[in-house]
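Exam revision sheet. Question 4 asks you to relate a sequence to its structure. Input first:
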Amino acid sequence: MDNVAFYVVNAFTTSPFKGNPAGVVLNADMLDEDTMQHIARELKCSETAFVMESERADIRLRYFSPKKEVELCGHATIATFHTLAEGGFIRKKELLMETAAGVLEIEILGRNVFMEQARPVFRDVDVEKKEVAEALGIEEHELGDLPVEAVSTGLFSLNIHVKTLETVQKMTPDFERVKELCKKTEVGALFVFTFETVCEDCLVHSRCFAPLYGVNEDPVTGTANGALGAYLKKHGLLHHPQYRAEQGFEMGRDGIIIVEAGERIRVGGEARTVMRGRIEL
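Answer key, structure tokens:
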């Protein structure tokens, strides 16, 4: 294979410079792991999805951050199925995808792509709120009363409640401390959220810090929002199983995620293709 076609797609937005950009590479069966890692590093998106044939589902996806392979990625999944539908590569509205986190359902509803998340896993962590506040660059009293808890619907993130939108917007994390805290609690990211929002129709406003993946801050994070949905449901904080969440505003990459936390966890949203090209190998 002399060259590889790629797409860059902004997930959770319809705007060209908003949302979370993901790389998408179709027909990736002939690529070895090292080549996929090099392509992900070259594209410099927080994750790049590689589309392959599957014996267990309609397609198989592998995800690579600039540093390593990850089991599941929400925004790269939304980007991938947007690309497949936009290009006429798929006709079905309901599909199965094979990932390292399991075989998950995809549904395309109009312009929105919804992806099923893995079954939630909850884990208590042994960490002091003072340590969390110091990593985030805020005062301990600015943290909310909800428990700091590790949750996974495909990837573990640490859910951290903050009282006010102003605190979330102004925080300047110490990323070396964030790394150490992620290692200590065995999570991939710190997911900070507040119930004060910019958009009136959103339930939560959040930021995601994931330096272990080579991404200090991720603009709009599908799997972490899915994990937060499971967390909010567990703690009785949802009045309706579907809600809208906002993220990426502090980075100028605003995005909106639809979260469903009913019998299963799903995240969904729109996407916009912003770049097409080829990488010479």
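Marking note for examiners. The radius of gyration is 18 Å.
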